[in-house]
From TrEMBL:
Keyword presence, Signal: no
UniProt xrefs under InterPro entries: AsnC-type_HTH_dom, GntR_C, TF_FadR/GntR_C, Tscrpt_reg_HTH_GntR, WH-like_DNA-bd_sf, WH_DNA-bd_sf
Organism superkingdom: Bacteria
CDD domains: WHTH_GntR (cd07377)
Record keywords: DNA-binding, Transcription, Transcription regulation
Domain HTH gntR-type intervals: 2-69
SMART domains according to UniProt: FCD (SM00895), HTH_GNTR (SM00345)
Protein name: GntR family transcriptional regulator
Pfam families for the chain: FCD (PF07729), GntR (PF00392)
UniProt organism field: Streptomyces lateritius
Length: 227
């Protein structure tokens, strides 16, 4: 059975983002193949992809290692997101489908309900799904891919504190969806820009921990593998 390289790439990226592999730690094809139970071929392809995304660097005579972004590079991620998310919302107002609206409204209802009940443990994942769906509603695969990559990198570089007023946060989400539903691109853009600006104070830069590689429970998704 051949495991697709994109599944291996996802597994390695998730383990980098979650801190299983610390920044600056060495990544060998043999080590990764053994960890994920695959051959070295998909690992090699995955490392090339992760290098293009900025999660991995390759040095001559040293091989691959987890990248070590500077604080300035980390700050730039938030600035770029603040530019792209409003663009995505504006595009969504012009291109969204009824299916997108149905999902977005459902997520807002769930988020508002969980926020009122104080069920904060669910809000982070719901927020992630909301922004992912909003990006998909833009109808631009290139923009969606960029925003997805930004979310991965921001999760890697930053710890995000829970919002002090989650009900207000989900009210903002609801207002964005209303603007998207009306096809009001400029309002969707403005509301999303304000939402992104308000979220900045919740981000705390993670400090890398030097030392051992932690054990991962990550299982490579074999869907699509061929016999």
């Amino acid at each position: 059975m051949r495991i697709p390289a994109h599944s291996v790439c996802t597994a390695i990226r998730d383990d980098i983002v979650s801190g299983v592999f610390e920044r600056g730690s060495r990544l060998t094809e043999e080590q990764l193949a053994r960890r994920y139970g695959v051959s070295r071929v998909p690992v090699r392809e995955a490392l090339r992809t992760l290098e293009s995304e900025g999660f991995v660097t390759t040095r001559r005579h040293a091989g691959a290692q987890v990248a070590e972004p500077t604080e300035q590079e980390a700050a730039d991620l938030l600035d770029v997101r603040a530019l792209l998310e409003p663009l995505g919302a504006a595009r969504a107002a012009q291109r969204r489908t009824e299916a997108h609206l149905k999902v977005l409204r459902g997520l807002v209802r769930l988020g508002q309900e969980r926020a009122r009940r104080g069920q904060g443990e669910d809000l982070r994942s719901l927020g992630g799904w909301f922004h992912e769906t909003l990006a998909q509603a833009s109808g631009s695969p290139a923009l969606t891919a960029l925003l997805t990559q930004l979310r991965h990198k921001i999760a890697w570089m930053y710890a995000v504190e829970p919002a002090a007023q989650p009900v207000e946060t989900w009210a903002e989400h609801g207002a964005i969806v209303d603007a998207v539903a009306r096809g009001d691109a400029e309002r969707a853009r403005a509301l999303t820009a304000l939402h992104a600006e308000r979220s900045l104070v919740l981000h705390r830069l993670k400090r890398p921990e030097r030392g051992r590689v932690r054990v991962s429970q990550h299982v490579v998704n074999t869907a699509g593998a061929r016999n």
